[in-house]
């Protein structure tokens, strides 16, 4: 991910699964919310808020290892948004 146009803000994170990565992305957003609203104990948000956070980043993409071809496949922020939605839906049930 890259938080601003400056390449110096580029950060790489490594997760053991897609599910863990989606948890990580939600966690990034939740930490940002707490940072912006330190006086609020229980912060809630909906998926549209999370999408706005993802869209507000200069860049966000994922490299997912595919064992069948033994290579990493790139995915864009639209894919990440779809996967975070599926992940959150699963957690809600």
TrEMBL record:
<comment type="similarity">
    <text>Belongs to the E(R) family.</text>
</comment>
<dbReference type="InterPro" id="IPR000781">
    <property type="entry name" value="ERH"/>
</dbReference>
<dbReference type="Pfam" id="PF01133">
    <property type="entry name" value="ER"/>
</dbReference>
<protein>
    <recommendedName>
        <fullName>Enhancer of rudimentary homolog</fullName>
    </recommendedName>
</protein>
<dbReference type="InterPro" id="IPR035912">
    <property type="entry name" value="EHR_sf"/>
</dbReference>
């Amino acid at each position: 991910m890259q938080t601003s146009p400056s390449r110096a803000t580029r950060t790489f994170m490594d997760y053991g699964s897609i599910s863990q990565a989606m948890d990580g992305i939600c966690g990034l957003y939740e930490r940002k919310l707490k940072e912006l609203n330190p006086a609020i104990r229980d912060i809630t948000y909906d998926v549209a808020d999370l999408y706005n956070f993802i869209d507000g980043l200069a860049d966000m993409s994922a490299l997912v290892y595919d064992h069948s071809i033994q290579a990493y496949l790139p995915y864009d922020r639209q894919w990440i948004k779809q996967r975070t939605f599926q992940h959150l839906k699963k957690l809600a049930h």
